[in-house]
């Protein structure tokens, strides 16, 4: 059981345990989610290894959405609700971070020497760029791109094709 | 026993000379390391590439001493004689057989060098003497190097030490030179004061010592930079011979090119290999009926698609093309509720998921989106176009964009008619007419193929105009591979593909595909190799890779009645961000060129995106006004 010790005044300390206010964070999952949503991706993933509750909360889409938005430069004020549904359809914010935003941030952090023109434009990963890459990834996962994978058997549309029964 | 003897001899005789101490020390080390394993060839030296029998070691050492003396004494030879001699009658010996090599050189040095007439090169004198001094017959394995004329003093140990780092930094600097480069090369030979060591491991002190000080008249020293220059000269000479229809000379040079290319590494070797093979095809089979890559036949359409996909993954050029074209289309579609895109080269449809997503998230909600994809006929009647359409439809369904698709199979774009592209609007049934449907035409690396047949491009541009698009996005390679003269095309292509291959080597692979990065790169190189074959080895209607530069395309488009639409700064920013992600921005450069965007490697633009609309069309001009004001 994790404890958050709130700051207490000196005088109360000699009162012993009665003077301290305990606030177990695990009793309040929403507050935990708020806190976790302020981490960066790597820390959040690490936090998910702490206990089952933290793992479950750390997988919430809302938490990852907060993380994504924190690390991404949102260009124009897009329709936030629309973004949410599109991202959910394409695979979710956690996947978005893992595939597109995380590697991009790592790569940008790794670049030491940048030309003057590049540094201003490319210091942030833009949401639109990340979403474009994400959509391409989702499309490729639909299978059969470049003939490298099998035909996706998931669709029952093959039943629509006429069958020769002669 | 023998080693001690030769150490003593080396140390004694060379006291006045240069690297002798070093040689002795090296020999000592080798002697210590090599106990009782020398019943034939010395193994350590063999590892360096020199075959010297251990029994001969003492003799070889002594002869090397004599050689050094002999060279030191003949320092009187002046520059011109040396270079002239090198130019016409250099004979090359293979130094891997060290004792014979030394014998040969000594015997030649002792006899006065005769300067015979250069054996007349096979029929045409002009190409060889004009371009460079590549001797007509090279039978040895080693490539031709040069030696320069130091100031006659024996090489000090300090010099020899300095040689080592220099040898190891003989980089594969790809010096593409025009034919006028020759005088510079000669001058640089004369100016250099030190010797270049051969490209085998720099610890080959034997060669360094043997060839120190003055005018060796026959030398075999390999320097990869020199060999690089030689390689380029050989390629140009061969191309010129081909242009002059001098196929015998060209055939001889082509063989030398492969030898030279083997001494290079990395991008240079691959490019030279592809060009040499293409030249060989051109020489030995002047009309290849269906050579590889000469024309995209039906059988190779699937292979083409697969290679294209690997090229897409391994370098950012196609991604840049897709992103910039999508941005231009997105801006042109602003405010319209029904949009239609015609894609001239559908392939795997990798451009459209990003556009679908951008339309889904645009302000005001997604429009109703129609896509018409054009593709070449497939060999096994598999409906690749339809499958791509299904996949895009699935994606569109998940992100809730109203999507309709139609695929057209056409062997050539010139077979299309306007009604085909507009047709379904009529048979769509109860389509309300109050919402105009705006059309965008997208062509990624497709228009240049039409230049192979006269009149085809004009017909296609006429078809495009008839469709009345609000924007036409054109992406083409930024190079002139359609000149009249073969030699000009060849030179241009050599520059262009060398830069391309350099960028493949130098650019980092995208983060998600690191494990298959090597595979992608190899396939991308094959993809480019097919283009090289087409540019060099094919002619007429089969030469479909007729790239032209951006100004040339601009002229063509304006002549046919299109106005340029400047690609906005959003596209530039997105492209820059994309480059920063996918390559760390190391060598790639995005530049803006009078409203068009180009992506290049260092200073050379390689691919250009431009956007157009039909001039004087009321619908498209009003659309662009709306875009400008919104």
TrEMBL record, chain A:
Domain F-box span(s) in chain numbering: 30-69
A Pfam family: F-box-like
GO CC annotation: SCF ubiquitin ligase complex
One GO BP annotation of this record: regulation of gibberellic acid mediated signaling pathway
This protein's name: F-box domain-containing protein
Organism of derivation: Zingiber officinale (Ginger)
Lineage, uppermost ranks: Eukaryota, Viridiplantae, Streptophyta, Embryophyta, Tracheophyta
Automatic annotation (TrEMBL), chain B:
Protein name in the entry: DELLA protein
InterPro entries: TF_DELLA_N (IPR021914), TF_GRAS (IPR005202)
Region feature Leucine repeat II (LRII), mapped onto this chain: 387-419
Domain notes: The DELLA motif is required for its GA-induced degradation.
Biased composition (Polar residues): 166-181
Positions occupied by motif LXXLL motif: 447-451
UniProt keyword Transcription present: yes
GO cellular component: nucleus
Domain of life per record: Eukaryota
GO biological process, one term: gibberellic acid mediated signaling pathway
UniProt function note: Transcriptional regulator that acts as a repressor of the gibberellin (GA) signaling pathway. Probably acts by participating in large multiprotein complexes that repress transcription of GA-inducible genes.
Subcellular location as annotated: Nucleus
Keyword terms of this UniProt record: Gibberellin signaling pathway, Nucleus, Transcription, Transcription regulation
A Pfam match: DELLA
Stretches the record annotates as Disordered: 1-24, 166-189
UniProt feature, compositional bias: Basic and acidic residues: 1-16
Family membership noted in the UniProt record: Belongs to the GRAS family. DELLA subfamily.
Transcriptional factor DELLA N-terminal domain location: 42-113
Region: SAW, residue numbers: 537-613
VHIID (motif): residue ranges: 339-343
């Amino acid at each position: 059981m994790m404890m958050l010790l709130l700051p207490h005044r000196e005088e109360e300390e000699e009162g012993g345990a009665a003077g301290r206010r305990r606030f177990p964070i695990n009793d309040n999952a929403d507050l935990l989610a708020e806190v976790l949503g302020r981490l960066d991706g790597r820390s959040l993933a690490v936090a998910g290894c702490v206990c089952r509750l933290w793992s479950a909360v750390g997988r919430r889409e809302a938490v990852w959405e907060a993380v994504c938005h924190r690390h991404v430069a949102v260009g124009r004020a897009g329709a936030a609700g629309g973004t949410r549904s599109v991202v959910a359809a394409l695979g979710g914010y956690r996947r978005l971070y893992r595939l597109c935003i995380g590697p991009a941030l790592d790569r940008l952090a790794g670049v030491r020497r940048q030309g003057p023109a590049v540094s201003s434009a490319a210091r942030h990963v833009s949401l639109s760029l990340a979403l474009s890459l994400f959509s391409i990834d989702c499309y490729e996962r639909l299978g059969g791109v470049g003939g490298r994978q099998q035909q996706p058997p998931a669709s029952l549309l093959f039943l629509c094709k006429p069958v020769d029964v002669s | 026993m023998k080693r001690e003897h030769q150490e003593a001899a080396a140390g004694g005789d060379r006291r006045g000379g240069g690297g002798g101490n070093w040689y002795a020390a090296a020999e000592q080390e080798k002697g210590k390391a090599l106990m009782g394993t020398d019943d034939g060839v010395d193994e350590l030296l063999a590892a360096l590439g020199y075959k010297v029998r251990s029994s001969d070691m003492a003799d070889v050492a002594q002869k090397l001493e004599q050689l050094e003396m002999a060279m030191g004494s003949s320092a009187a030879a002046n520059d011109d004689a040396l270079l002239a001699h090198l130019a016409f009658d250099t004979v090359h010996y293979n130094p891997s057989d060290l004792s014979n090599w030394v014998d040969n050189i000594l015997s030649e040095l002792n006899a006065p060098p005769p300067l015979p007439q250069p054996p007349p090169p096979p029929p045409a004198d002009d190409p060889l003497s004009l371009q460079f001094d590549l001797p007509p017959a090279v039978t040895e394995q080693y490539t031709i190097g040069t030696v320069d004329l130091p100031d006659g003093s024996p090489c000090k140990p300090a010099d020899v030490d300095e040689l080592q780092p220099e040898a190891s930094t003989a980089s594969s600097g790809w010096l593409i030179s025009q034919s006028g480069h020759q005088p510079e090369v000669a001058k640089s030979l004369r100016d250099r004061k030190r010797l270049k060591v051969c490209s085998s491991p720099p610890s080959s002190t034997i060669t360094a010592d043997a060839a120190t000080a003055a005018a060796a008249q026959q030398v075999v020293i390999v320097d990869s930079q020199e060999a690089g220059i030689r390689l380029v000269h050989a390629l140009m000479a061969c191309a010129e011979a081909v242009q002059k229809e001098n196929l015998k000379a060209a055939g001889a040079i082509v063989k030398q090119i492969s030898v030279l290319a083997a001494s290079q590494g990395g991008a240079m070797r691959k490019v030279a290999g592809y060009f040499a093979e293409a030249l060989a095809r051109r020489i030995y089979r002047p009309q290849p009926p269906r050579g590889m890559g000469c024309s995209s036949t039906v059988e190779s359409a699937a292979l083409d698609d697969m290679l294209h996909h690997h090229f897409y993954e391994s370098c950012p050029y196609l991604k840049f093309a897709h992103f910039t074209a999508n941005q231009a289309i997105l801006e042109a579609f602003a405010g319209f509720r029904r949009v239609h895109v015609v894609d001239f080269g559908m392939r795997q449809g990798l451009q459209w998921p990003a556009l679908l997503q951008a339309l889904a998230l645009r302000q005001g909600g997604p429009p109703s989106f129609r896509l018409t994809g054009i593709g070449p006929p497939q060999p096994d009647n598999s409906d690749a176009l339809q499958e791509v359409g299904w996949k895009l439809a699935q994606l569109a369904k998940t992100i809730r964009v109203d999507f309709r698709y139609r695929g057209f199979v056409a062997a050539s774009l010139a077979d299309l008619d306007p009604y085909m592209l507009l047709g379904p609007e009529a048979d769509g049934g109860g389509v309300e007419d109050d919402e105009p449907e705006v059309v965008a035409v997208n062509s990624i690396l497709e228009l240049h193929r039409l230049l192979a047949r006269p009149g085809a491009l004009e017909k296609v541009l006429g078809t495009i105009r008839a469709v009345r698009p609000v924007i036409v996005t054109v992406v083409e390679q930024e190079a002139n591979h359609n000149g009249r003269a073969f030699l000009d095309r060849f030179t241009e292509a050599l520059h262009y593909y060398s830069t391309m291959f350099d960028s493949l080597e130098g650019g980092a692979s995208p983060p998600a595909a690191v494990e298959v990065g090597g595979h992608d790169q190899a396939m991308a190189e094959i993809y480019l190799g097919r283009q090289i074959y087409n540019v060099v080895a094919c002619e007429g209607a089969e030469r479909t890779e007729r790239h032209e530069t951006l100004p040339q395309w601009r002229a063509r488009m304006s002549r046919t009645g299109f106005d340029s639409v400047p690609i906005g700064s959003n596209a530039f920013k997105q492209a820059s961000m994309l480059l920063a992600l996918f390559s760390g921005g190391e060598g790639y450069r995005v530049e803006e060129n009078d409203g068009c965007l180009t992506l290049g490697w260092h200073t050379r633009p390689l691919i250009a995106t431009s956007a157009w609309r039909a001039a004087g069309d009321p619908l498209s001009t009003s659309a662009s006004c709306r875009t400008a004001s919104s």
